Amino acid sequence: MLYNYSDIDIHFTFEGALIQALYIVSGPANTSVPSHSHGNGCYEIHYIPSGKGNLKAKGLFYDLEPGTVYVTGPHVEHTQIPILSDPMQEYCVYLKIQNPCKQQSHSPIMDAFTSTSFWIGKDTQGIQELMVQLFHELNNHYFGYLPRPVCSCPSL
């Protein structure tokens, strides 16, 4: 089943930067994703819990299999191709990082994340459990959940 949260308003600050989740998606990847890239400050975090596929990023090909995590950062051209005999499932979180404070000393976490335009590897930190919990909470609208406000203002 496909879950697509593109109308969310999830944002927080971390070390002087505004981080927004522009969309969060989970589901089968049955069709190829055409080659594309994202703008300044934009990052996609992908996790493959099952199935298989291929990734072309920065001109190189990678196998996608259960337990693979990859991050594509700004201006990294990438395409994703499922293996139709065993199509992959995917979790994807798309983040936009704005206004990082250049004068402030960042933690190694923020520096490592924003200075890495592409990374691929095996999940060793339990990201699957994190993704399952994220979608569980998004699907259940627990106490404190607020739908994104709809602007009813007249157009200017």
What does this structure look like?
With 156 residues, the protein is mainly beta. Helix content is 13%, strand content 44%. It is built from two helices and eleven strands, in the order E-E-E-E-E-E-E-E-E-E-H-E-H. The chain has helices spanning 108-114, 127-140, and strands spanning 3-5, 10-14, 17-28, 33-36, 42-50, 53-57, 60-64, 68-72, 78-82, 89-98, 118-122. The strands form two sheets. Strands 1, 2, 3, 5, 8, 10 and 11 form a seven-stranded antiparallel beta sheet that branches. It has a four-stranded antiparallel beta sheet with strand order 4-9-6-7, with no helix packed on it. The chain is globular and about 40 Å long. The termini are far apart.
Task: Spell out the blueprint of helices and strands.
Layout: E1 3-5, E2 10-14, E3 17-28, E4 33-36, E5 42-50, E6 53-57, E7 60-64, E8 68-72, E9 78-82, E10 89-98, H1 108-114, E11 118-122, H2 127-140
Keywords:
mainly beta; 7-stranded antiparallel β-sheet; 11 strands; 156 residues; globular
Number of helices: 2
Helix proportion of residues, in percent? 10-25%
Basic shape: globular
The overall pLDDT average reads: 87
Structural class: mainly beta
Helix and strand sequence: EEEEEEEEEEHEH
How do you describe this structure in short?
This protein is mostly beta strands and 156 residues long. It is 13% helix and 44% strand.
